[in-house]
Amino acid sequence: MMMPLKEVDSVEILTLLDNSIDLLLSSTECVRRLPLPPDALTREGLVAEHGFAALVTVRSGNTSDSLLFDAGLSKTGLIHNMDVLDVRPKELHAVVLSHGHADHTQGLMGMVDRLGERRMPLLLHPDAFLERKVIFPDGHELNLPPPDRRILSQDGIEFVEERGPSYLLGGLVLVTGQVHRTTPFELGLPLHHALVGGTWQPDPYIHDDQAIVVHVKDKGLVVLTGCGHAGAINTIRQAQELTGVQTIHTVIGGFHLGGLLFEPYIAPTVAALKEIGPAMIVPAHCTGWRAAHAIARELPDAFVPNSVGTRFVL
After folding, report:
1. How are beta strands 141-144 and 157-161 bridged, if at all?
2. Does residue 255 lie within any of the structural domains?
3. Which of 165, 188, 247, 286 is deepest in the core (most CB within 10 A)?
């Protein structure tokens, strides 16, 4: 399936939530760190948490439109950082969820109160509503509650459930939909389970995992992932296949390479990224420090550390 993607003049991705914040990182022309006012260390500042959220703003001609990609873990983190960064929920045109895990969805509970009477479209894969958990080898479990359809539907959210790729913002943003698995090394999360038909079943592939793609004029594709459960390389390949554009300018987001289970994925992922050759790679959230160090070592000119409050102007 081909999904031709209109070019934009530019795209800005603002990190609203991520696992880390560093006030001392330096800016470049394309990577703009949060300015430090004189009272930066005494005023109420941004927060970091185990979660991810980003504001995506595309500009084409004289028009500019924004959407929210993911919402972080806590009820308060997202809306707090939006307030600090002067991002107004009522000015958003849509919300996209990369998948249904709580560290990407629960911040919606704190944001919907600001929407007023407006019905905000929220695009997600139907599997995002599955009850899920991780069952560790020693038997203990980690619950992964899905977004609360009942509460959110009462508070200004209009669910748009799509398994396949779709457009947003007048065809300027592509949501990949369910990502095809083509690499031999991106094998999902083997300890992951979902409640299907009243029975807990293995759910390693997390089929609702999806990404956002933007085509920037004279640069190429910008790919934004949440956790990248489908695999960063699978996701990039799907973006290339859908759009017909082979040049990858920037990859930002979680690549889910943290932890012992995923360390065997790091070397082939980094090798594939070197072959693809993005101008900028911004590992975030669940990428893990070993993978981030490997990317920094093997692609030093492309690697950029993320931090809450950073704006990527591409």
Report:
1. unpaired
2. yes
3. 286
Is there a domain that residue 130 lies in? yes
Q: How many domains in the chain?
A: 1
Taking the alpha carbons of 267, 288, 72, 9 in that order, is the dihedral positive or negative? Answer: negative
Asked whether residue 1 is assigned to any structural domain, the reply reads no
Q: H or E segment at 294?
A: helix 289-298
DSSP for residue 73: S
Alpha-carbon distance 129 to 38, whole Å? 45
What type of residue is 208?
Answer: D
Pull the structure tokens for residue 270.
């980094």
Give the count of alpha carbons within 13 A of 65, CB side only: 15
CA 46, distance to chain mean position in Å, is: 19
Instruction: At 52, give phi and psi (nearest 5°).
Output: -145, 140
Residue 132 scores a pLDDT above 80: yes
Q: What is the CATH number of the domain that holds 29?
A: 3.60.15.10
Mean pLDDT (the chain, rounded): 95
Secondary structure of residue 119 in the 3-state scheme = coil
Instruction: Read off the DSSP letter of residue 115.
Output: S
Is 0.90 surpassed by the pTM of this model?
Answer: yes
Contacts of 70 (CB under 8 A, 6+ apart): 17, 51, 52, 53, 54, 96, 97, 98, 104, 105, 226
Residue 308 and residue 258: Cα distance in Å, rounded? 19
Domain membership of residue 2 (yes or no) is no
Q: Which domain holds residue 226?
A: 8-313
Paired residues of 133 in beta bridges: 143, 193
The CA distance from 280 to 308, in Å, is 17
Asked if 164 and 175 count as a contact pair (C-beta separation under 8 A), the reply is no
pLDDT tens track for 179-228: 999 999 999 999 999 999 999 999 999 999 999 999 999 999 999 999 99
Q: 207 with 258: CB under 8 angstroms?
A: no
pLDDT of residue 39: 80
Q: What integer is the mean pLDDT of 284-292?
A: 98
